[in-house]
Amino acid sequence: DDFIANESGTTTSTLITGWNLIPNPYLSNIDVSTLLQDNTNFDLAYKAVHVWDAKFQRYIALTADIPSVIEWNNSLNNALNATNNIAPFQAFWVKALASPSSDATANEEIKLVTAHRTVEDNANFFKTSPPLIRLKLATLNEEYSDQSVIAFSDESTNGTDYNDALKLNSLNKNTPNLSSVAEGTRLSINRLSNPA
After folding, report:
1. CB neighbours of 135 closer than 8 A, spacing ≥ 6?
2. pLDDT tens for residues 129-179?
């Protein structure tokens, strides 16, 4: 069966409103790349999902072409695998963008369909890493850490792009929060144009 989440409403702040917690209702993983690239069933302008990492007390930002800000080819924490999958019954945050006009309403829809499901673990999906800078900030005992990624491509701009990922701060006050800023917006994944 398909699972549909619908967000309709008026917003006054595009950064703090529009967040929706969506569950993976399936017994199989959801492939984030397939989900985010499906413009028919994932009709949101903001093309990223955020998953809570309970072990490290932080949010992981997932986009269609970067598996996560926490893991890039399994090189940061051995406990986590570089993956672009959402586990069965794992909830994830999505952001529905609504018009900043107080009298306008937005209607965006997410529909999880069978095509989004996968039984494969794609930890070895990436053969080479695109050019990027990964910044890590950790507490002295490295019990808690956070990370921000700046990736470069010819398709990106130096402003905010549709596939940048907003920064969601940890709920744990002991966890550091690291982000980059584009046009006054804090980002956990920031894509910029290739340096000249």
Report:
1. 147, 148, 149, 150, 178, 180
2. 457 788 888 888 889 999 999 888 878 888 888 889 999 999 999 999 999
| DSSP character string of 169-194 | --SSTTS----EEETTEEEEEEEEEP
Q: Is 91 within 8 Å of 54 (Cβ atoms)? A: no
| 8 Å CB contact between 12 and 102 | yes
| DSSP 8-state secondary structure symbol assigned to residue 10 | -
Q: Report whether 144 contacts 174 (CB < 8 A).
A: yes
- What region, left, alpha or beta, does residue 76 occupy, with left being phi > 0 and alpha being psi -120 to 50 degrees? alpha
Whole-model pTM? 0.55
Burial of residue 166 (CB within 10 Å: 0-12, 13-18, 19+) is buried
Q: How far apart are CA 31 and CA 34, in angstroms?
A: 5
Q: Which two tokens stand for residue 51?
A: 């998953």
